[in-house]
Specification:
The protein is α+β, with helices and mostly antiparallel strands. The protein folds into two domains: 55 residues, Leucyl/phenylalanyl-tRNA-protein transferase, N-terminal domain (Alpha-Beta Plaits), CATH 3.30.70.3550; 154 residues, Leucyl/phenylalanyl-tRNA-protein transferase, C-terminal domain (Aminopeptidase, 3-Layer(aba) Sandwich), CATH 3.40.630.70. 33% of the residues lie in helices and 29% in strands. It has seven helices and eleven strands. The chain has a seven-stranded mixed β-sheet, with helices on both faces. Strands 1-2-4-3 form a four-stranded mixed β-sheet. The longest helix has 15 residues. The protein is globular, with a radius of gyration of 17 Å.
Length: 214
């Protein structure tokens, strides 16, 4: 059942989601609404000018302790192929994520409204960026949101081969040190599966959110 949202801070039960995970449409993309959605197991994804709200079953996640690092990436990490930073250039990272071409997608879901909302979340201390750099030039990175002990990954990009992988691995290592218990990858990608991400039932995902966000 597809719900139409207004500006209230409210979402229908995730069990109402359609088979593909689409739960609701509409409403304004505000920082408060995004944070509330994440805590309910819901995330926004734009098509055109209208926000769509999703809660797929199963859910694609990575448990930080299950991170897999390939031999080639271990070599790159050991020789420090990139310099790694956190929150040094959030604005550039989210804009580069919006600009990257993705197979099977026309245009980008990272609209000006998305950039504005997540930049506000960054200012509030919820949204973070991770950067891989070469000679102080941004080579790749990713951004997402931390609530409690959960990191909700949003998007990543690479200008240089393996730069986003490097940034992701380094970020996961840092998140483990900070006590993060779960990384929400939202939807399946072969890239993240190769690094240890896997599907879990939505019901299990919701329970993990309750445990790690409270």
């Amino acid at each position: 059942m597809l719900h139409i949202l207004d500006d209230r801070l409210w979402f229908p039960p995730v069990e109402d989601a359609m088979e593909d995970g689409l739960l609701a449409i509409g409403g304004h993309l505000t920082p408060d609404k995004i944070l509330y959605a994440y805590q309910k197991g819901i995330f926004p994804w734009y098509e055109g000018d209208v926000p769509l709200w999703w809660s797929p079953d199963p859910r694609f996640v990575l448990f930080p302790q299950e991170l897999k690092v390939s031999k080639s990436m271990k070599v790159m990490l050991k020789r420090q192929a990139f310099s790694f930073t956190i929150n040094q250039n959030f604005s550039a990272v989210i804009k580069r994520c919006a600009e990257v071409e993705r197979p099977g997608q026309e245009g980008t879901w990272i609209t000006p409204d998305v950039i504005s909302a997540y930049t506000s979340l960054h200012t509030q201390g919820f949204a973070i960026s991770a950067e891989a750099q070469i000679n102080n030039e941004l080579a790749g990175g990713l951004y997402g949101v931390i609530i409690g002990k959960v990191f909700f990954g949003e998007s990543m990009f690479s200008k240089v081969t393996n730069a986003s992988k490097f940034a992701f691995i380094k970020l996961v290592e840092e998140l483990k040190r900070q006590g993060i218990e779960l990384i929400d990858c939202q939807v399946y990608t072969e890239h993240l599966e190769s690094m240890g991400a896997r599907m879990i039932a939505r019901k299990e995902f919701i329970e993990l959110l309750k445990t790690n966000i409270g």
